[in-house]
């Protein structure tokens, strides 16, 4: 395989010199080795951040923050604009790396880098729109207003399935807000983190920026714990499993810090009597098998009106038969591998449990073998018929496993959809205005994302991304999500010659 994209991104076998943004003192460091799920080959390695190095990174970030917070926001936006331009230059190479290290299809890898570019554009505009409010005071000759200040160091813990985009959602917005960031990428996709940091370093050097505005640390959960326990890091943005998020929330909450959590999803698509079948097939199939079912917004459950149930089941079964599984860098393939063999084992275990509780196989799963699947991480997307009483659909399996079940009334379908611990994304396929409005009403979906006539995955950066319940309640990316990265301050100015108290209180001397 031609790996020129690695050279373009400044990657080589041992990336220890760039893993934390600190040069030197890495000769005796332990390393994280990155293996591609595409072919099982080693991509490269990065040094694990030691505690001493971590403290040096945080100290450097503190110094950088004192400078960066005084830079006017539009000037901060200009740096982000330049980073977006650098991403455009390296889009093909970074997209290939995402695909090769994570395993998603090349079109999805390129799409993820486009998300980074889009959020840079959004953040540039935002740099001139960090608005506060002006309020009327109850006291004469007084003025009240609120303003927003940067929070400080933002610690970012990201997951393997979107190894670059989620970091950019957080980092680009935090940077225009005047914060500095320290990023711990997933140990399953460390090379993507180094590549993004290398591109940032080029932009920073061209603008004579101090080191520490954007920093990178690498390691396992213990390195993440250093950040979550660190009072010098006022905000932790963590993306991953619900189990991980509960630990982060408890740890950060114990020190009265702030946490922004993007956790699990168990997303359903309701298909009504009036649904357009062309939309159903495209939305359901991509939602279920895109990224090999490893999106937090992947479609896990289809809740289908009983009058369309057999039609949807049979047409989807036929569509599954047309899927091409293989090397994700080959644009002819639809589905790449799972991230590693542990994920394969989880997938196999889930299928066994589904069958044990009576799930009926529509499309058989299984691990693929042969010369085209040497990594051992390629699996068949599986499709099962279940009932609303089934237990397995209540649990998220991060793999391409789809469940289908019938319903009779829309109220019943919404109840089934909402009856899971997670609350990230949801969708309804309908041509009825009444059905769509009920789904979007307060009596409808309880998810942070609710779509009509599109699938559960594929969110745009302009809207706030996140969910409720065990999804964590956080919001990233667009809308007013920037407020999570800043602290609000209320100001009252008295321009009179007297000092009246609020609420009519008197205090005479």
Automatic annotation (TrEMBL):
Basic and acidic residues biased stretches: 1-15
Subunit structure: Homotetramer.
The organism of origin for this protein: Neolewinella antarctica
Residue stretches making up the Aldehyde dehydrogenase domain: 28-490
PROSITE patterns found in the cross-reference section: ALDEHYDE_DEHYDR_GLU
Family: Belongs to the aldehyde dehydrogenase family.
Name of the protein in question: aldehyde dehydrogenase (NAD(+))
InterPro entries linked to this entry: Ald_DH/histidinol_DH, Ald_DH_C, Ald_DH_CS_GLU, Ald_DH_N, Aldehyde_DH_dom, ALDH7A1-like
Keyword Aminoacyl-tRNA synthetase included in the entry's annotation: no
Region (Disordered): 1-30
């Amino acid at each position: 395989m031609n790996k020129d994209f690695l050279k373009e991104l400044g990657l080589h076998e041992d990336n220890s010199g760039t893993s934390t943004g600190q040069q030197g003192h890495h000769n005796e460091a332990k390393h994280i080795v990155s293996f591609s799920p595409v072919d099982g080959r080693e991509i490269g390695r990065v040094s694990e951040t030691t505690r001493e190095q971590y403290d040096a990174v945080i100290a450097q970030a503190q110094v950088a923050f004192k400078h960066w917070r005084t830079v006017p926001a539009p000037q901060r936006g200009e740096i982000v604009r330049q980073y977006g331009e650098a991403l455009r230059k390296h889009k093909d190479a970074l997209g290939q790396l995402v695909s090769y290290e994570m395993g998603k299809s090349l079109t999805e890898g390129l799409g993820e880098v486009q998300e980074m570019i889009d959020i840079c554009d959004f953040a540039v505009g935002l740099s001139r729109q960090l608005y506060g409010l002006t309020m009327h005071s109850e006291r004469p000759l007084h003025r009240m207003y609120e303003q927003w200040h940067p929070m400080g160091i933002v610690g970012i813990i990201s997951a393997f399935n979107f190894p670059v985009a989620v970091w950019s959602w957080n980092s680009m917005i935090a940077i225009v807000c005047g914060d500095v960031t320290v990023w711990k990428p997933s140990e399953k996709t460390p090379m993507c983190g180094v590549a993004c940091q290398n591109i940032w370093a080029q932009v920073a050097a061209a603008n004579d920026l101090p080191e520490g505005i954007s920093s990178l640390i690498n390691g396992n959960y213990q390195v993440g714990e250093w950040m979550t326990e660190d009072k010098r890091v006022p905000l932790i943005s963590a993306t991953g499993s619900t189990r991980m998020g509960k630990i982060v929330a408890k740890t950060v909450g114990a020190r009265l810090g702030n946490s922004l959590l993007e956790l699990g999803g168990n997303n359903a698509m309701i298909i009504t009597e009036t649904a357009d079948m062309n939309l159903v097939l495209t939305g359901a199939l991509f939602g279920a098998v895109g990224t090999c079912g490893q999106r937090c917004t992947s479609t896990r459950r289809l809740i289908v009106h009983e009058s369309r149930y057999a039609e949807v089941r049979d047409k989807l079964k036929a569509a599954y038969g047309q899927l091409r599984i293989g090397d994700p860098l080959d644009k002819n393939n639809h589905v790449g591998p799972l991230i590693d063999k542990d994920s394969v084992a989880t997938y196999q275990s889930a299928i066994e449990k589904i069958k044990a509780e009576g799930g009926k196989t529509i499309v058989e799963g299984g691990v693929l073998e042969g010369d085209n699947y040497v990594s051992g991480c390629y699996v068949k997307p599986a499709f099962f018929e279940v009932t609303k009483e089934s237990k397995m659909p209540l649990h998220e399996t991060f793999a391409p496993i789809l469940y289908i079940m019938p319903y009779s009334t829309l109220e019943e379908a919404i109840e089934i959809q909402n009856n899971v611990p997670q609350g990230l994304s949801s969708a309804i396929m309908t041509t009825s205005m009444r059905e769509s409005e009920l789904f979007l009403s307060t009596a409808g979906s309880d998810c942070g994302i609710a779509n009509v006539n599109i699938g559960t995955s594929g969110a745009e950066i302009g809207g706030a991304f996140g969910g409720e319940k065990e999804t964590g309640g956080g919001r990233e990316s667009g809308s007013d999500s920037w407020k999570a990265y800043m602290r609000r301050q209320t100001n009252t100015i008295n321009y009179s010659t007297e000092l009246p108290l609020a609420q009519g209180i008197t205090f005479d001397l």
